[in-house]
Design goal:
The protein has helices spanning 17-35, 58-69, 79-82, 90-100, 111-120, 135-149, 164-176, 192-198, 215-218, 239-246, 253-257, 279-282, 289-310, and strands at 47-52, 73-78, 103-107, 125-127, 155-159, 179-183, 208-211, 224-227, 264-267. The protein is of the alpha/beta class. The chain folds into two domains: 12-134 and 296-310, 3-Layer(aba) Sandwich (Rossmann fold), CATH 3.40.50.1370; 137-292, 3-Layer(aba) Sandwich (Rossmann fold), CATH 3.40.50.1370. A five-stranded parallel beta sheet has the order 7-6-5-8-9, with helices on one face. A four-stranded parallel beta sheet has the order 2-1-3-4, with helices on both faces. The site of norvaline has 9 residues, from helix 7.
Length: 313
């Protein structure tokens, strides 16, 4: 039996613009309280189940500490322990797990696994990264941008692979009203079908999406330069080819200098210094990578509070 009427967070297109703004507002408010020394119990005794089929530092730590700060708790379920789809069917895992925990966050090799888990879950399911998207990362990225510039309405340039992190960033930009330019080499760009999916529904005023294969052309007047690894988890066999194709898309001092003078550098991490980004950029005063990573925790608190306390009505 498929569970009905449960609100999940699998992609940013699952929430309206107003709902995303509410998640961001909660994140900002809970972060301000946290900085002032207040850790309010928004989720007393609630339990988060965390399933990981791939490695993680930020996602695991941000969800676990976030739940603890909110008065709840979390439980790590590693793939080798639960045998996702091997030891028992996904439907059984989902029904059993959701009968005991209040929310599930799942990092899956295949996007479809998250969709399948949600289908049978009687509690909300959060996408903690798949091969298709990384919506929790985009929440943290947009929070970092708002803190830096006081608005989402800035020009963001994505340089490199048109991957899961880029997909969610485009969806967030569409809903919050940022301009985004994607600069990827031929053969590594989004399809028309994907682009249509990212921008489905209402887009916010100020949203602009364009594509420019020349990174120097793309970054002109950019306030945010964002890149990610050239070889994502699961693509290891393509490493040698990808290193060659993406070499002209390295974010180095020269490319950074071609952007606006107050531009910041973002990277979801983990990064490979010397490949997609040089040390002089990632460790420079323009880099906001640590703030961005910390914002995973604040953004996910906003998401958890919205999903459990407001969205399921
Ligand atoms: N950015 C991110 O999701 O990091 P982890 O893979 O360490 O969780
Ligand atoms: N694109 C990267 C992001 C890691 C957080 C990957 O999927 O491996």
């Amino acid at each position: 039996m498929t569970q009905k009427n449960i609100r999940h967070f699998i992609d940013l297109t699952d929430v309206s613009n107003a709902e995303l703004n509410r998640i961001m507002e909660l994140a900002e408010q809970i972060k301000a309280d946290y900085i002032a020394g207040k850790r309010e119990d928004y989720l007393p005794k609630k339990v988060l189940g965390l399933i990981f089929e791939k490695m993680s530092l930020r996602t695991r730590v941000s969800f676990e500490t976030g739940m603890a700060h909110l008065g709840g708790s979390s439980m790590l379920l590693e793939e080798q322990h639960i045998g996702f789809g091997k030891r028992e069917p996904v439907a059984d895992i989902s029904r059993v797990l959701s009968s005991m925990v209040d929310v599930i966050a799942f990092r899956a090799k295949k996007h479809q696994s998250v969709v399948d888990l949600a289908r049978y879950s009687s509690c909300p399911v959060i996408n903690a990264l798949t091969d298709r998207s990384h919506p929790c990362q985009a929440l943290a990225d947009m929070l970092t941008i708002k803190e830096e510039f006081g608005t989402y309405a800035v020009k963001i340039v994505w340089v490199g692979d048109s991957n899961n992190v880029a997909a969610s960033l485009i969806e967030a930009a569409a809903k919050l009203g940022a301009e985004i330019v994607v600069s990827s080499p031929e053969g590594y760009t989004f399809s028309d079908e994907e682009i249509a999916r990212f921008t489905v529904g209402e887009t916010a005023p100020g949203f602009k999406l364009s594509f420019e294969s020349d990174p120097y052309e793309a970054v002109r007047d950019a306030r945010v330069l964002y890149t990610d690894v050239w070889v994502s988890m699961g693509q290891e066999a393509e490493e040698e080819t990808r290193k060659k194709v993406f070499a002209p898309y390295q974010v180095n001092g020269k490319l950074m200098a071609a952007a606006a003078p107050d531009a910041i550098f973002l990277h979801c991490l983990p990064a490979r210094r010397g490949l997609e980004v040089t040390e002089d950029v990632i460790d420079s005063p323009q880099s906001r990578i640590v703030e961005e990573a910390e914002n995973r925790m604040h953004a996910e608190k906003g998401l958890l509070v919205w999903l459990l306390n407001e969205a399921q009505r």
